[in-house]
């Protein structure tokens, strides 16, 4: 069978609806904005010089920090969870995994909305705190609320790859380590952890990427007080009508992600060959 | 023992973290009052209001149309892509093409499509969302079918050809049946991803034809309403049923597939 | 076989795209101010109307269908900026699918300059006579040439009498609230209204284009941000009712004064006069029905019913005189007279300088 009639439609489709649109964004970043939106055909690099403005550089930096914090927290929470799941009997593993994914299947926006109800001043978190004689805390509309929301939204994306790499581990390796006199901590550090690095890297990428470009959670849980790069891009298109600058920002976002992707691929390969 | 407990604690805390919001939403969906912060007696009032909310129903219908359409289109395109690449596991082009929609942030794809539709002067509507969702749908279907393909035995196809079957016959009788679980899983994934997709729909839907996530977004922005609790509970019930059904389905199809080939 | 079907699907998709493109170009070439046909059968037409959520009575479509025979589809936008983005996405000549849009005066002015609006055919809207004379002399569009006012009002401070120690009298009460109200205040982010409190405190015009004045305003706004609960253009009333906040920069009509604990005040430094208008898009293929809808809304019966539903003042003399006294009694902002309103400074479009306001709002919301 010839390949082209089979791959042709799909490749054409993805070219028209993905490659060309992304190419448009790339080219718009080098044009001037029209007053009422759209672009004017005048080449310029001012959109990129504007990126260097400390205001926007700060936003990119702040977003990187928020996404990184979310990723680290997801790893700290996700790893022990995945570790315990991987050690469960087979049937219970499936149940535990489904239980991780199930809230993920309601609706992204509803999951975000739930945290408004939980974190707001008169909300359930403060009710719970008061019941044990603490609080109240003002969490909603702070960075803490944004990180909580992101963590909640993307934690399963950390747990699943970690579980996949943990469950593939040969239990005999750990036994061997134990037989050689290694304590549980030493055997974890020298055997389990290094062997699950690819899973860790994948999980980190899966959490970092959507956190970094998110604009819904900062808006709804951050009260519009903290602007992340996703909000800035959204606003250039849907508020300020400055498509060229929005495109330049989007390219900056893509550049950061590409660097991360390459770093991840490099690290994964290094660990694979060890 | 101490070590066990130390490890198990975060495990249980994770589930508390994952389910606390869900429990609050489900419980509050049965509260008679309007306040989301106090339970004021059992009532099904919000389910009634939800059933009578034209905006939500309109959004739901739109979402189902988009999800079904894009899942169908994605399944065809993605399956063909994967089969076209055949057992060739090292197809660089295909790797790139199927990976790209998964790593390109949804926001970037959303603005790309927005400027693209504006450039070709396509009037936004439901079709614009459907076409957009097919991009990532195709990629995910192709990826799943390829994984499945990598696990099938090429010698079966060779045997079929050696026995004089035409390529088409071989494809229809050998390759296709072995791919069924992959295709089904891909279609299901494309459908569910489309149902919950917000960012791209937000940018590419016509203001008159919002999908359900876009409706929910504007509701949340205009304040907290208990109808959303009822909606959340229903969605949870549906996805729970779907997960259980899918679990059953994959178990029977994976068991059934080898028999079909044999 | 399956390959063929997929090729067919893609081909159909592409063909649709091309057709859509051609269709657009077709309509573009015969653009220009068409003469409308006063005898056109509007029941053959249908309307898509974009309006703020909660800004028209919920049963408006049914009423219009019953009374005019025109099917109406309602789309919602959350902010002026959102609808502007949708309307301008394809540039002049593109069709957003919207026939009638509700936007604030300065945005109507910008849309008109962009060539996206159909001139108002006054002969098709006899009910224009019901408007206050003042409402036909508004700065952004004298004589209602491309827009028809729907509601008008001013921006002020909406507050909980039981949660503030002293009733606010100045924009400084929002910008520099007492310690007890830290994180209990919300402000608006839509460009011009974000700048308004600071500009008024500094004694500048709300339409200023001076870089110096805007920079000064930015400093004040960044200071104020430290004490804010959130930026909120849509749910500030809700938050006040729930007690999440105690004071909000607010449009008069969205201040829930029907709650006896909540009051509205216009600060002593003065404020604006804003007008939300109805405009007909040039791309509309249902312009006669669009005019009929506007005429229908200006009917005293209907316009007063709208005012009672959304609790905003309408610039319709005949309608205001018909307002239910009980509703007037319960909602103080409704009782402001046109003369009082006109003390506010009219917000107008500032042309290319609009970008300065966009930038200011980005700088304030992103800055710290």
From TrEMBL, chain A:
<feature type="transmembrane region" description="Helical">
    <location>
        <begin position="65"/>
        <end position="88"/>
    </location>
</feature>
<dbReference type="GO" id="GO:0005886">
    <property type="term" value="C:plasma membrane"/>
</dbReference>
<keyword id="KW-0472">Membrane</keyword>
<comment type="similarity">
    <text>Belongs to the binding-protein-dependent transport system permease family. CysTW subfamily.</text>
</comment>
<dbReference type="Pfam" id="PF00528">
    <property type="entry name" value="BPD_transp_1"/>
</dbReference>
<keyword id="KW-0813">Transport</keyword>
<keyword id="KW-1003">Cell membrane</keyword>
<dbReference type="InterPro" id="IPR035906">
    <property type="entry name" value="MetI-like_sf"/>
</dbReference>
<dbReference type="InterPro" id="IPR000515">
    <property type="entry name" value="MetI-like"/>
</dbReference>
<feature type="domain" description="ABC transmembrane type-1">
    <location>
        <begin position="60"/>
        <end position="266"/>
    </location>
</feature>
<feature type="transmembrane region" description="Helical">
    <location>
        <begin position="12"/>
        <end position="31"/>
    </location>
</feature>
<feature type="transmembrane region" description="Helical">
    <location>
        <begin position="195"/>
        <end position="217"/>
    </location>
</feature>
<feature type="transmembrane region" description="Helical">
    <location>
        <begin position="139"/>
        <end position="164"/>
    </location>
</feature>
<protein>
    <submittedName>
        <fullName>ABC transporter permease</fullName>
    </submittedName>
</protein>
<feature type="transmembrane region" description="Helical">
    <location>
        <begin position="95"/>
        <end position="119"/>
    </location>
</feature>
<keyword id="KW-1133">Transmembrane helix</keyword>
<keyword id="KW-0812">Transmembrane</keyword>
<dbReference type="GO" id="GO:0055085">
    <property type="term" value="P:transmembrane transport"/>
</dbReference>
<feature type="transmembrane region" description="Helical">
    <location>
        <begin position="245"/>
        <end position="268"/>
    </location>
</feature>
Automatic annotation (TrEMBL), chain B:
<dbReference type="Pfam" id="PF00528">
    <property type="entry name" value="BPD_transp_1"/>
</dbReference>
<dbReference type="InterPro" id="IPR000515">
    <property type="entry name" value="MetI-like"/>
</dbReference>
<keyword id="KW-0472">Membrane</keyword>
<keyword id="KW-0813">Transport</keyword>
<feature type="transmembrane region" description="Helical">
    <location>
        <begin position="126"/>
        <end position="145"/>
    </location>
</feature>
<feature type="domain" description="ABC transmembrane type-1">
    <location>
        <begin position="60"/>
        <end position="246"/>
    </location>
</feature>
<keyword id="KW-1003">Cell membrane</keyword>
<feature type="transmembrane region" description="Helical">
    <location>
        <begin position="97"/>
        <end position="120"/>
    </location>
</feature>
<feature type="transmembrane region" description="Helical">
    <location>
        <begin position="228"/>
        <end position="246"/>
    </location>
</feature>
<dbReference type="InterPro" id="IPR051789">
    <property type="entry name" value="Bact_Polyamine_Transport"/>
</dbReference>
<protein>
    <submittedName>
        <fullName>ABC transporter permease</fullName>
    </submittedName>
</protein>
<dbReference type="InterPro" id="IPR035906">
    <property type="entry name" value="MetI-like_sf"/>
</dbReference>
<keyword id="KW-1133">Transmembrane helix</keyword>
<comment type="similarity">
    <text>Belongs to the binding-protein-dependent transport system permease family. CysTW subfamily.</text>
</comment>
<feature type="transmembrane region" description="Helical">
    <location>
        <begin position="12"/>
        <end position="32"/>
    </location>
</feature>
<dbReference type="GO" id="GO:0055085">
    <property type="term" value="P:transmembrane transport"/>
</dbReference>
<keyword id="KW-0812">Transmembrane</keyword>
<feature type="transmembrane region" description="Helical">
    <location>
        <begin position="64"/>
        <end position="85"/>
    </location>
</feature>
<dbReference type="GO" id="GO:0005886">
    <property type="term" value="C:plasma membrane"/>
</dbReference>
């Amino acid at each position: 069978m010839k390949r082209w009639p089979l791959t042709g439609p799909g490749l054409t489709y993805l070219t028209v609806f993905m490659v060309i649109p992304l190419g448009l964004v790339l080219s718009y970043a080098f044009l001037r904005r029209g007053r009422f939106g759209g672009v004017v055909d005048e080449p310029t690099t001012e959109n990129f010089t504007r990126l260097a403005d400390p205001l926007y550089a700060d936003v990119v930096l702040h977003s990187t920090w928020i996404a990184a914090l979310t990723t680290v927290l997801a790893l700290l929470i996700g790893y022990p969870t995945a570790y315990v799941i991987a050690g469960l009997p087979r049937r219970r593993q499936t149940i535990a995994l489904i239980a991780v994914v199930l809230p993920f299947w309601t609706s992204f926006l509803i999951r975000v909305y739930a945290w408004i109800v939980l974190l707001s001043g008169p909300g359930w978190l403060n009710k719970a705190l008061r019941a044990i004689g603490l609080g109240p805390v003002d969490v909603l509309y702070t960075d803490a609320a944004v990180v909580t929301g992101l963590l909640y939204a993307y934690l399963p994306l950390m747990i699943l790859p970690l579980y996949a790499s943990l469950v593939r581990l040969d239990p005999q390796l750990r036994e061997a380590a134990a037989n050689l006199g290694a304590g549980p901590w030493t055997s974890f550090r020298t055997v389990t952890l290094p062997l699950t690095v690819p899973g860790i890297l994948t999980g980190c990428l899966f959490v970092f990427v959507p956190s970094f470009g998110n604009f819904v959670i900062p808006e709804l849980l951050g009260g519009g007080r903290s602007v992340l790069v996703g909000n800035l891009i959204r606003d250039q298109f849907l508020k300020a009508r400055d498509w060229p600058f929005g495109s330049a920002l989007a390219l900056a976002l893509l550049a950061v992600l590409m660097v991360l992707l390459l770093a991840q691929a490099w690290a994964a390969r290094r660990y694979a060959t060890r | 023992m101490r070590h066990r407990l130390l490890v198990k604690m975060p495990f249980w805390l994770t589930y508390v973290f994952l389910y606390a919001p869900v429990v609050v939403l489900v419980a509050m969906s049965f509260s008679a009052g309007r306040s989301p912060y106090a339970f004021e007696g059992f009532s099904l009032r919000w389910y009634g209001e939800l059933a009578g909310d034209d905006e939500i129903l309109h959004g739901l219908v739109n979402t189902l149309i988009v999800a079904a359409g894009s899942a169908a289109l994605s399944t065809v395109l993605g399956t063909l892509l994967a089969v076209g690449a055949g057992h060739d596991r090292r197809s660089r082009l295909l790797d790139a093409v199927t990976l790209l929609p998964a790593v390109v942030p949804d926001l970037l794809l959303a603005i790309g499509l927005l400027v693209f539709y504006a450039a070709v002067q396509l009037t936004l509507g439901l079709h614009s969302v459907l076409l957009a969702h097919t991009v990532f749908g195709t990629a995910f279907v192709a990826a799943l079918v390829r994984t499945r393909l990598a696990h099938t035995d090429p010698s079966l196809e060779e045997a079929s050809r050696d026995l004089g079957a035409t390529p088409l016959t071989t494809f229809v009788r050998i390759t296709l049946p072995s791919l069924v679980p992959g295709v089904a899983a891909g279609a299901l994934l494309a459908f569910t991803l489309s149902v919950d997709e917000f960012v791209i729909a937000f940018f590419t839907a016509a203001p008159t034809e919002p999908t359900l996530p876009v409706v929910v977004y504007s509701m949340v922005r205009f304040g907290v309403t208990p109808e959303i609790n009822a909606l959340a509970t229903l969605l949870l019930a549906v996805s729970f049923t779907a997960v259980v059904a899918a679990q059953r389905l994959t178990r029977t199809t994976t068991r059934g597939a080898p028999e079909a080939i044999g | 076989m399956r390959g063929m079907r997929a090729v067919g699907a893609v081909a159909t998709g592409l063909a649709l795209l091309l057709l859509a493109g051609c269709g657009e170009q077709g309509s573009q070439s015969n653009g220009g101010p068409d003469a409308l046909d006063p005898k056109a059968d509007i029941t053959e037409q249908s309307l898509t109307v974009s309006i703020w959520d909660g800004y028209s009575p919920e049963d408006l479509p049914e009423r219009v269908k019953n009374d005019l025979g025109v099917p109406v589809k309602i789309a919602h936008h959350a902010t002026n900026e959102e609808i502007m983005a949708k309307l301008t996405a394809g540039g002049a000549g593109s069709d957003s699918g919207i026939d009638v849009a509700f936007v604030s005066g300065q945005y109507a002015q910008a849309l008109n300059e962009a060539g996206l609006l159909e001139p108002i055919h006054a002969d098709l809207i006899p009910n224009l006579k019901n408007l206050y004379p003042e409402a036909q002399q508004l700065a952004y569009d004298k004589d209602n040439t491309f827009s028809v006012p729907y509601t008008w009002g001013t921006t002020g401070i909406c507050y909980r009498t039981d949660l503030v120690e002293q009733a606010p009298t100045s924009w400084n009460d929002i910008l520099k609230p007492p310690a007890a109200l830290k994180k209990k205040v919300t402000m608006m982010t839509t460009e011009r209204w974000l700048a308004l409190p600071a500009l008024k405190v500094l004694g500048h015009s709300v339409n200023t284009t001076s870089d110096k004045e805007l920079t000064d305003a930015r400093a004040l706004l960044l200071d104020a941000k430290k004490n804010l609960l959130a930026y909120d253009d849509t749910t500030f009333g809700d938050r006040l009712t729930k007690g999440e906040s105690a004071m909000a920069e607010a449009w008069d009509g969205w201040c829930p004064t029907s709650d006896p604990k909540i009051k509205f005040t216009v600060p002593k430094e003065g404020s604006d006069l804003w007008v939300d208008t109805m405009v007909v898009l040039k791309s509309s293929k249902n312009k006669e029905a669009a005019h009929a809808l506007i005429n229908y809304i200006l009917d005293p019966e209907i316009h007063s019913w709208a005012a009672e539903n959304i609790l905003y003042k309408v610039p319709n003399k005949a309608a205001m005189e018909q307002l239910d006294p009980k509703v007037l009694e319960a909602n103080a902002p409704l009782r402001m007279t046109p003369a009082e309103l006109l003390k506010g400074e009219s917000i107008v479009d500032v042309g290319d300088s609009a970008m300065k306001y966009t930038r200011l709002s980005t700088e304030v919301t992103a800055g710290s």
